[in-house]
UniProtKB/TrEMBL annotation:
One of its GO terms (molecular function) is beta-glucosidase activity. It holds the Pfam family Glyco_hydro_1. This is Beta-glucosidase. It comes from Citrus clementina (Clementine). One of its GO terms (biological process) is carbohydrate metabolic process. PANTHER family: GLYCOSYL HYDROLASE, VICIANIN HYDROLASE-LIKE. Belongs to the glycosyl hydrolase 1 family.
Length: 530
């Protein structure tokens, strides 16, 4: 969700109709000049391929709340947000969050009203396994909650899309061996995944092993703004411990091996009879060369490898991108032959979280001393959101999100070319608005409607050009806790009022999405005719 904010921090360190009508949208060309682009194309869900899934999502820590009840143990995010309120913009935490744990039935009614095909959520590892390990025992109340949630979704005609791990590692494993800094995590993650497949896989047909592992490595171990808050002291992020030159790569290595282990288990033990699919969700930006120079073009390519290829390349080809091997050197761990083979092709789909672009400028000539070497400097790229005083896209409430919908098409075509045209779900896309306004104002979210409209338009263009996109999930269905931003912003199409007992109030975007998903009758071959 906030990867672009992380990248900017890194840079500083080193009328609601069922038609989709795009009118005079502001975008930004690669040369930095804002330009008007007028597209008039009435589309709705019938224009997408048969079987295309439309949904929305949330995550366990961001929504559930109820941290200390019904047998759940703390996660590293519980610890981080409660112990370091200064690292959350409003000093808040998700101890209550939006109480999805108790209010999921009323939320599912809203999902059904919207017409969602699917709902993407994550399972809380410490709610299921309070001691982190199968050997420590299973929490029956945690199992009951997720069984009830899955059954309620299905009873309302909504397919569950489940993420196994969305950042909330059991604190006990962090305390015992350092969490993803240790290779011990691979077996424990595999055991946890195995239990989830066995317990819920008869009803869950879409699994993601983890969400935004690159956000974990960057936010948690490079700049320290995410749990567990580790970084080099030279980066000035008030981190108690860490090494931004080595730990991001160690953590990513163990995340990749944990992912591959879970996929191998699913394919060997469950997929044959459960008939589901499994993948991973990676967040990225689309990087635009700041100038037309070959050096900046190479910088944009290099940054894609360092952010997206860091995970996509190993799970496709069994090895890290060559440019990372060259530039990171001995600090980048190696895969054994067995590990490489296990990683290669370890997904049925790629989940892509896309929000915004950034400019990439070559900084190869810059030198770093030993105190400042880190993941932040290894790519030799300087990132920015403005050129010649012009923003890269439409400004939003957040200073680090500029809407550039064409970027989603460009990135889809990039994946098609570089990664053998895999199956893709857009697992997150959306825009935030400020929460420091009255409810009535917050519900008028025209910019979010614009965001959905334009990204769906360009996504459809990519599909027409042969990209294998199977679904689109808006982030998020409800306003929820947004990590380091706390409750200062909301990405939801449903407003949650923290001044009124967490009451839910649909925003204009909710009704737009409802209309888009329930269009008037149209030809069965609308997709082919477009």
């Amino acid at each position: 969700m906030a990867i672009q904010n992380q990248l900017l921090l890194i840079c500083s360190i080193g009328a609601l109709a069922g038609l989709l009508v795009l009118a005079t949208s502001r975008s930004c060309s690669a040369d930095g000049a804002a330009e008007a682009e007028e597209i008039q194309m009435p589309i709705n869900r019938s224009n997408f391929p048969p079987g295309f899934i439309f949904g929305a999502g949330t995550s366990a820590y961001a929504a559930e709340g109820n941290v200390n009840i019904d047998g759940k143990s703390p996660s590293i995010w519980d610890t981080f947000a409660n112990n370091h309120p200064e690292k959350i913009h409003d000093g808040s935490n998700a101890n209550v969050a939006i109480d999805f744990y108790h209010r999921y039935k009323e939320d599912i009614k809203l999902m059904k009203e919207t017409g969602l095909d699917s709902f993407r959520f994550s399972i809380s590892w410490p709610r299921l396994l309070p001691k982190g390990k199968i050997s420590g025992g299973v929490n029956p109340l945690g199992v009951q909650f997720y069984n009830n949630l899955i059954d309620e979704l299905i009873a309302n005609g909504i397919k569950p899309f489940v993420t196994l791990f969305h950042w909330d590692l059991p604190q006990v494993l962090e305390d015992e061996y350092g969490g993803f800094l240790s290779s011990e995590i691979v077996k424990d993650f595999g055991d946890y995944a195995d239990f989830c497949f066995k317990t819920f896989g008869d009803r869950v047909k879409q699994w993601a092993t983890m969400a935004e592992p690159n956000s974990i490595s960057i936010g948690g171990y490079t700049i320290g703004v995410y749990a567990p808050g580790r970084c080099s002291s030279s980066l000035g992020s008030n981190c108690a411990a860490g090494d931004s030159a080595t730990e991001p790569y160690i953590v990513s290595h163990n995340l990749l091996l944990s992912h591959a282990t879970a996929v191998k288990l699913y394919k060997e033990k469950y997929q044959g009879h459960q008939k589901g699919e499994i993948g991973i969700t990676i967040v990225t930006q689309w990087f635009i060369p700041k100038t037309e120079s070959p050096a900046d073009q190479e910088a944009a390519s290099r940054m894609l490898d360092f952010l997206f290829g860091w995970f996509a390349h190993p799970i496709t080809y069994g090895e890290y991108p060559e440019v990372m091997t060259t530039l990171v050197g001995s600090r980048l761990p190696n895969f054994s032959k067995t590990e490489s083979e296990m990683l290669k092709g370890s997904y049925d789909f790629l989940g892509i979280n896309y929000y915004a672009p950034m400019y990439a400028e070559d900084s190869s000539s810059s030198t770093s001393n030993s105190d400042t070497i880190s993941y932040s400097t290894d790519s030799r790229v300087t990132l920015s959101t403005h050129k010649d005083g012009n923003p890269i896209g439409t400004p939003t409430t957040l200073p680090w999100i500029f809407l550039y919908p064409k970027g989603i098409k460009d990135f889809m075509l990039y994946i098609k070319s570089k990664y053998n045209n895999p199956a893709i779900y857009i697992t997150e896309n959306g825009v935030a608005d400020a929460k420091d306004v009255e409810q009535a104002q917050a519900r008028k979210d025209d910019l979010r409607i614009k965001c959905y409209q334009e990204h769906l338009w360009y996504l459809l263009e990519a599909i027409k050009e042969g990209v294998h996109v199977k679904g689109y999930y808006a982030w998020s269905f409800l306003d929820n806790f947004e990590w380091d931003a706390g409750f200062t912003v909301g990405f939801g199409m449903v407003y949650v009022d923290h001044k009124d007992n967490l009451q839910r109030y649909p925003k204009d975007s909710f009704f737009w999405y409802k209309s888009f998903l329930a269009p008037p009758k149209s030809p069965a071959n609308a997709f082919d005719e477009l």
